[in-house]
From TrEMBL:
Protein name as annotated: ATP synthase subunit d, mitochondrial
Entry-linked Gene3D superfamilies: 6.10.280.70
Similarity section: Belongs to the ATPase d subunit family.
Principal location: mitochondrion
SUPFAM superfamilies: ATP synthase D chain-like
One Gene Ontology term from the biological process aspect of the record: proton motive force-driven ATP synthesis
Coiled-coil residue spans: 105-132
A GO term, aspect molecular function: proton transmembrane transporter activity
Keyword vocabulary terms for this entry: ATP synthesis, CF(0), Coiled coil, Hydrogen ion transport, Ion transport, Membrane, Mitochondrion, Mitochondrion inner membrane, Transport
UniProt superkingdom: Eukaryota
Organism: Tuber aestivum
Subcellular location: Mitochondrion inner membrane
InterPro entries xref list: ATP_synth_F0_dsu_mt, ATP_synth_F0_dsu_sf_mt
Amino acid sequence: MATSANPQRSAALKINWVQIATSLGLKGQTVASLQAFKKRNEDVRRKVAILSETPQEVDFNHYRAILKNQAVVDEIEKAYTSFKPATYDLNKQLKTIEAFEAEAVKNAEATKGRVDVELQELEKTLKNIEEARPFEDLTVDDIARARPDIDTRTADMVSKGRWMPAGYKEKFGELSVL
């Protein structure tokens, strides 16, 4: 079992957490989840290091030499030697981790999709800005092609007998002379 843990441990030490977030262009909830996972990973690694440094054996002879009540030491030694640690099935935790990874990948792909769509829209807008003619060179037909809703709204207003847009007089004043 020790040989199978070493490759995993060495692989975990080689993870460059900052590079993962920047190279994949992760943002928002995905980065927060990744940082939380990183923190849990570091906490567990720290606890394992502390526990591996602590002594594993209890020197009962030392306690027999110090304590007068040998029966207490014998009882504790008997309980210690008869103790069998519980074994855990790690498959459930591994499945949880795999589900977390799958959710993180799904969120990253969704984020990437939204970013790609936004980049395409921004590139299209930038192209329109670069190719746009100066305002002075625009004609009414150019504006009508760019915003067909203006023609529709104007035709609707004229059909209702309105010759001024709503709020025009309040904003620009009355231009007719009586």
